[in-house]
Amino acid sequence: MARPLTGAVVEDTRRPEPTFALRFSAYGKRRYVTLGGKGEGWTRARADAELQNVLADVRRGLWEPPKSEAVVALAREIPTFHVFASEWFDRQTAEGGRHGGGLSAKGVVDLEWRIAKHLLPYFAAMRLDAITVEDVDRYRAAKVRAGNLGATSINKTLSTLSAILEVACEYGHIERNVAQGRRRRLPAPVPSRTSLDRADHITALLDAAAELDAKALVRHGQRRALLSTLLFAGLRIGEALTLRWGDVDFARGTIQVRAAKTDAGVRTVNIVAVLRDELDAYRARTLYGRDVLVFGSSRGKVQSSSNVRTRVLVKAVERANVKLKKAGVEPIPKLTPRSLRRTFASLLFAIDETPPYVMAQMGHTTANLTLAVYARQMNRRDGEPERLKALVQGVEMAAIGSQGNEPAEKRAPQANAGREK
Question: Are 50 and 35 within 8 A, CB to CB?
Answer without folding.
Answer: yes
